[in-house]
Amino acid sequence: MALLEVERSLGRAPESGSSALDEAGFRRLAEFIWDETGILLTAAKRPMVSARLQRRLRELGCDTLSTYLDRALAPAEDRERQHLIDLLTTNETFFYREPAHFAYLVSEVLPAYRGQRMRVWSAACSSGEEAYTLAMALAEVLGLRGDWSVLGTDISTRMLAQAHQGLYPLERAKHLPRLWLERYCLKGVRGQAGYILIDPRLQKRVSWDQHNLLHPRREGAPFDIVFLRNVLIYFDRAVKQRVIECLYEALRPGGWLFISHVESLQGLRTPLVMQRPSVFRRPPG
Ligand SMILES: C[S@@+](CC[C@H](N)C(=O)[O-])C[C@H]1O[C@@H](n2cnc3c(N)ncnc32)[C@H](O)[C@@H]1O
């Protein structure tokens, strides 16, 4: 992104209450995050940025954001740059989020795939709850012996490490149907009391990989179903267009794309056909 565009989108930054978050540093940071992730850090996000970065600045003994960025953006600092991305992505998620999608999958979409091979992608999976919920829906309809698998990807390696563990506070599963909880989750005991562990039979059907939505995805494609939920909200129209084009290429003809009910593809050029609000299909053949 050109600096001018970042500046236009930022407007004049309000006082953050943190002198460490210097103006020049914030602009440099916003440009870096936009280039790397497509996420727009507007002036309104400044207090959030300040809250998330202050501890890291202190840990590294940096007085200002600019000093920190001199270090983090240096060519050899790949790990610090990833840490920065991990800190600035918003990873809110839980099991069985937006229940209407899972109900629709189970009753309208999955039955047509019985006896067939099926590949599903949770394309901004955060700590993995969405990918595991998809695996539960697939196990319900296609069976634990069916030829299906789920791929969970995210830009945050910290979130992927959590997803890999498959261990969650019980609280995160409070919306999961009781039957699914009993069938596909093990109750933690002793040191893991208050936690659930995803059943290993389900865990081995789900794989994880770091992937940036700004880039095409060829590994594992084509996918029959893609979930891309609660991430388009962080992007402007140009980035959304690019992300949807990449996803379209990764979808099998006739495949399904689910976005969040709070998101839309309005104003984008795409051959995807809306089936109902937030559910789209790539035209067959
Ligand atoms: C709010 S979470 C959504 C999790 C889940 N899809 C859901 O709906 O509950 C958004 C996720 O998008 C990821 N993300 C943001 N920008 C990304 C990008 N350019 N490529 C891949 N993942 C990205 C973040 O790391 C974060 O985990």
TrEMBL record:
InterPro entries in the record: Bact_Chemotaxis_MeTrfase, Chemotaxis_MeTrfase_CheR, CheR_C, CheR_MeTrfase, CheR_N, CheR_N_sf, SAM-dependent_MTases_sf
EC number of this enzyme: 2.1.1.80
The keyword Endoplasmic reticulum belongs to this UniProt entry's keyword annotation: no
Residue stretches making up the CheR-type methyltransferase domain: 20-285
Binding sites annotated in the UniProt record for S-adenosyl-L-methionine: 91, 93, 97, 130, 154, 212-213, 229-230
Molecular function in Gene Ontology: protein-glutamate O-methyltransferase activity
Enzyme class: transferase
Example GO biological process: methylation
Catalytic activity: L-glutamyl-[protein] + S-adenosyl-L-methionine = [protein]-L-glutamate 5-O-methyl ester + S-adenosyl-L-homocysteine
PROSITE patterns: CHER (PS50123)
One Pfam family of this chain: CheR
Keyword tags: Methyltransferase, S-adenosyl-L-methionine, Transferase
Function: Methylation of the membrane-bound methyl-accepting chemotaxis proteins (MCP) to form gamma-glutamyl methyl ester residues in MCP.
Protein name, entry field: Chemotaxis protein methyltransferase
